[in-house]
Batch of 4 targets.
Target 1
Amino acid sequence: MGDLPDRVLNFGDSKPQEVKEPIDPTEIEESQLDQLPKPTGYRILIMPFQGKRKTNGGIVLTDETVERERLATVVGYVLSVGEDAYKDESRFKSAWCKEGDWILFGRYAGAKIPIEGGEVRILNDDEVIATVETPEVILTTYRS
């Protein structure tokens, strides 16, 4: 047989990887929102924060890294609130969040629903831990 190399180096194709920007929940149009599930009763529909696919220095993150970050996120944007959320006066003095708020929630909280380009979650009203100004503040704090 001839001399065969003991290793084969495979760098993939030479085409640059297409970088898809994450969905910005603050820019979802009303027609797109109408296509999402409507939370019933005391439930809240949120979109978990999707981090950037590229670092500030221009390095493209692998799909595995992006997916790991997405699964570990605990920050979400409130898309809609069910009609009975925070109505139980024996449990809540006022609403903990409203549409358009960024919130913290438990890592395993809620039902995950896959959509094109990511996922949404439906949480119970009492699964909201806190509200935050922007999601970047939390992610920066965790990484420091």
Target 2
Amino acid sequence: MFRLEDSLGFLLNRAALSMRRSIEGKLKPYGLTAPQWAVLARLWEEDGQSPTVIGKSLFFDKPTIKGILDRLERKGFVKRARDAKDRRVTNIFLARKGDEMREKLPNIALGVNKSAAKGLTAAEMTVLKRSLKAVWCNLEE
């Protein structure tokens, strides 16, 4: 008999939702959501990316990334500037407030990951990550 609680999709969705709720609760004092945090994390990796590049790397469609960037700009975390090589392109840069979060916010995400992995060994985490990547790739084909 089919039981929803045993469905891989159900379990993945519940786990993802729980992680998102956890990180968003910890980001709330900073005025950020999980998707906004992800954009900042991408900019900490490489500042000055175009909205298209950021959106594709995070699997956000154009309207979604535009809304996230608009809100981050209004909150003072990022700023927009025309590309020096192609004035038609606008790139996104960390504003001072966004750069200052570089020291605080990654530890929040690491803490959420640590809480989620409680009771799992390093080997189990390696298998879990490999398995999740396989599920993802299987469904993208």
Target 3
Amino acid sequence: MKTIACRCEDVTLHDLDDAIARGHRDLESLKRYTGFGTGWCQGKGCVALCAAHLARAGGSAALPITPRPPVHPLRLADLAGLASIASDDEQSGRPPR
């Protein structure tokens, strides 16, 4: 049975166990090896679960992990697609919505 630990990056409990067995016994190292906490939610949905799993395995689950912001900062309008709509309106001569 596949048990998901991080939905954003599709990290399973098996992936965590494998990483721990390979010597990743602290939360930051485990995150870097498996990729949990690096998706859209930036760990809000998975860090606590992964830390608890690591602690049960005898590792160091000290929080917080190092956050990794997006490489290129984006405006909210760009993410929502509103910037392209405004650009299209401007080019076609339509009034802003």
Target 4
Amino acid sequence: MEIKDLREKIDLVDKDIINSISKRLELSKDVAKVKYQKNLPIRDNKREVELIKDRTEKLKESGIDDSIFANNLFELIMEKSRQIQEKEILKLKK
């Protein structure tokens, strides 16, 4: 297989990753609405710890045994999710 072919495959996978992250972050708006309605805090430390533990294990099962990578990846995703939730809640308060 040529490098060009491999890069095209990587580009397709990256497109899937981008689409999945976009969908996940869009769901953050719905989460914000529920949290606002139920007067829940944006941050749920227990949920975040459980999520990172679970995703680290799932990555390990898929062959990626790197807890630092898993932690950093999902910390970034959750931080962006919290930012979106904060913006959405500000909109709802207006």
